[in-house]
Each structure stands twice: as structure tokens, then as C-alpha cells.
Design goal:
The chain is an alpha+beta fold. Helix 2 runs antiparallel to helix 3. It is rod-shaped and about 190 Å long. The protein starts with 13 loop residues before the first helix and ends in an 8-residue tail after the last strand.
Length: 406
């Protein structure tokens, strides 16, 4: 009987055996896939239920803070100023005959600088001497007349009126002598003023006149100026807020002065070098500049080599006192918060990092002088700051602090 389309193949036919083999393979593959999926789900559930392993502690270097007694100083800007400046002007008028110095050289007090033509003044002296000689002769005649009339008046030979006239003439002659002597002294002083001398010791500047110029007494233009450079003054500018804080620290005992002597100051020059001679603070002005809000402090420095010249910009390091409450935090350990506040990482007793906001008042050497935020015994992180944050567990290695200079 012919086979119909769509009928099943015989059970023992090759076709039926091949189809049954494929069915077994598909069933085995499905079972394997089911087992694999179940294992993955079990492993995923197991990994989700177990806690992750704890991270290893971060290695950092710390420094233990300690309280010290250190000198406190502040560095402030300043300008040098001459100790004394004398503008030399003539006190008599005349023709300038000679200049007796070299511009820029050092002169001493009383050294002649200019010579004015003395001829008119010498003549005035001789005229005053002649007038004095004439008045002295008149005085001697009046004195002789008065003495003679006194003896005659006792004998009543002459009247009292004649005696009084003779004595009045004598007193007038004596007064004329005094006046003429004063005129002679004035003439001699004017003659002495023809040699224009330096009033102070110092260094001369450029001269404004040359020989042959006509000068007048007390003219507005100075002939030359003389500047005294040893010692030299330094005007230091200090903000009023810093002055108030310094006075509060002295009043509270946070800062103390070792003695009642004047404060010592040192200079840092424009090229960064330190001036070898120390100076003293003379005084502080009692008025605050309204434009800058600062107070001017004047210090005096020896200048034997005349290294400092007026008008130079310098920085003055002034000793404010000594503090025994100083806690120094290395500058490399201090960072800034998002609000710009100084902060540092501190490792607590459990080895966990804490973030501390600091109050730093000034820089001393390579450290910050901190008044709030940390205490003696705290361990601050100085190396490995990029790998830690608040709450990080660390493995700290101690480093001894370096002794900072004031």
C-alpha cells in the first residue's frame, strides 16, 4: 500500500531513530542549561548575602604636635628715611666766588661749602670799628666833663643843671658805645656768613649753583642739601588690626615681653639678604592712617657702611615677644576647605582620619602657628594627604618634628 503524505515513519526505520537521537540531545542540553543557570543564581545570592572584604589601611606619615616656647616676630614692609637732612641756604647776599667741596662726598659739621665775595662785608666791619672808636672818644670826653662838674658842684661853683646835662651826655655816649659794638658784631657775623658751612655731618648731594652766581639771604632755593646716613631711620607700616591683636595677646598673657627694653628689629633687603645690623623701635604713631588703616612705626638702624640709602624698600622683622602656648603645624599638612578655611587631617587613637578646621595666626619658619583646631598630642598627616579623607582608616608612621626658627 503506498505511503501517504504526512504519515509517521516506522519505529524501526532509520528516520525515526535519527529524530529520537536529536530529541535526546535537545533534552540533555536543556537540562545542562537549567543546572548552569541555577548554579549562577545560587552563587549570585551567596555573593550578595556575604559582606565585601574590608579595604587595607592607607599608609601615611604623621607628626605629633607639641606645645613649645618660641619667640614671635612679624615681617612688615617699610621705607628707609634719612636721620637728618639739612638744606644749605645763604644767610647773606652776594656773588658766589668759590665752591669748596666735591658733590657727593662726605662732609663734617662746620666744614665750609661755599665762599661768597667778602669784600663788602669786610668794609662794613671796618666802618663799624671806626664808628666805635669815635663813640669811645666821645664817651671819654663826656666822662671827664662829668667828673669835673661834680667837684665844682660840691663847691657850688656850677649849677646842678649843668651837672645833670653833663651826666646825661655821658650816659648817652655809653649807650652809643653799646649800640656801635652791636653793629660791629653784626658786621663781623655777616662777614663770617660769607663762608657757607655745613650744619651737620653727612653726604652732600647735587649743587644747584656754580661760582659766579648771585645769591640772596634766606632764598627759597637751597645751594645744596646734606644728608646724614648713619644712623638711618626706617618707617614701618603695621595694620591696625595686627596692633590690636598684639595688645590683646600681651594683655591675656598669650604673648609676653622678656624685658621692658625697646623691641629689636631686623631688616630684609630688596634682594632677599638680611641686613647685618639690628635696630631698635623708637616709637609708634598714635594716629591711624585713614587711607590705609595702618600705623607707622619708626625704627633706627646703624649704617656705618652706608649700605642703606633713603627711599629703599625693606621688610622689617620685629620681635613681638615670647609665647609658651605655641602649637606649630607644618605648612604641608595644612590645606583649604571649599570655603577657604585652613584644615588638617588628624589621626585619632583608633587609626581613623578626622578633619579639623584650624585657626592659624601667622607663619613661623616652615610651620603655621595654630591657636585653635588642634591640641598638643594630636597626630597630623603630613604625607599621603591625597589618599585620605575623613573616616579613612590608615596605618600611620611617626616622624619627629623639626625645630622651627622664629
Amino acid at each position: 500500500m503506498p505511503q501517504q503524505l504526512g504519515a509517521l515513519p516506522p519505529l524501526r526505520s532509520p528516520v525515526f531513530r535519527a529524530s529520537r537521537g536529536r530529541a535526546r540531545l535537545l533534552l540533555a542540553f536543556g537540562l545542562m542549561l537549567l543546572v548552569t543557570t541555577g548554579c549562577k543564581e545560587n552563587s549570585t545570592r551567596a555573593s550578595a548575602s556575604s559582606p565585601p572584604p574590608a579595604p587595607a589601611p592607607v599608609a601615611v606619615t604623621v607628626q605629633t604636635l607639641e606645645r613649645r616656647e618660641i619667640p614671635v616676630s612679624s615681617v612688615l614692609p617699610g621705607r628707609t628715611a634719612p636721620f637728618r637732612v639739612a638744606e644749605v641756604r645763604p644767610q647773606v647776599g652776594g656773588v658766589l666766588r668759590e665752591r669748596l667741596f666735591v658733590e657727593g662726598e662726605a662732609v663734617t659739621a662746620g666744614q665750609p661749602l661755599f665762599q661768597i665775595d667778602p669784600a663788602p662785608f669786610e668794609a662794613a666791619v671796618r666802618r663799624a670799628e671806626a664808628a666805635l672808636t669815635r663813640i669811645e672818644a666821645t664817651e671819654r670826653l663826656a666822662s671827664s666833663t662829668a667828673n669835673r662838674l661834680r667837684s665844682l658842684a660840691r663847691s657850688q661853683v656850677v649849677s646842678e643843671q649843668n651837672l645833670e646835662n653833663a651826666e646825661a651826655t655821658l650816659r648817652q655816649a655809653q649807650a652809643d658805645i653799646l649800640s656801635t659794638r652791636a653793629a660791629l658784631e653784626t658786621a663781623r657775623i655777616d662777614l663770617n656768613y660769607t663762608r657757607v658751612a655745613s650744619p651737620i655731618s653727612g653726604r652732600t648731594n647735587r649743587s644747584t649753583v656754580t661760582p659766579g652766581a648771585l645769591v640772596t639771604a634766606n632764598q627759597l632755593t637751597a645751594l645744596v642739601s646734606v644728608t646724614q646716613l648713619d644712623p638711618i631711620l626706617v618707617d614701618i607700616t603695621q595694620p591696625s588690626s595686627v596692633l590690636l591683636q598684639q595688645r590683646r595677646d600681651l594683655a591675656s598673657g598669650a604673648l609676653r615681653r622678656p624685658s621692658a627694653d625697646r623691641a629689636v628689629a631686623r631688616l630684609l633687603l630688596e634682594d632677599g639678604s638680611e641686613y647685618p645690623h639690628a635696630g631698635e623701635i623708637q616709637f609708634s604713631e598714635a594716629i591711624v592712617d585713614q587711607g590705609t588703616g595702618s600705623v607707622t612705626i619708626r625704627a633706627v638702624f646703624p649704617n656705618p657702611d652706608q649700605l642703606l640709602l633713603p627711599g629703599m624698600f625693606v621688610r622689617a622683622r620685629m620681635e613681638e615677644g615670647v609665647t609658651d602656648r605655641a602649637i606649630l603645624v607644618p605648612q604641608r599638612a595644612v590645606m583649604r576647605t571649599s570655603r577657604g578655611e585652613p584644615m588638617a587631617f588628624v589621626v585619632n587613637a583608633e587609626g581613623v582620619v578626622e578633619q579639623r578646621v584650624l585657626r592659624a595666626s601667622r607663619v613661623i619658619g616652615n610651620d603655621w602657628l595654630v591657636t585653635e583646631g588642634v591640641a598638643a598630642g594630636d597626630r597630623v598627616v603630613i604625607e599621603g594627604l591625597q589618599r585620605v579623607r575623613a573616616g579613612t582608616r590608615v596605618q600611620a608612621t611617626e616622624r619627629a618634628p623639626a625645630r622651627a626658627a622664629s
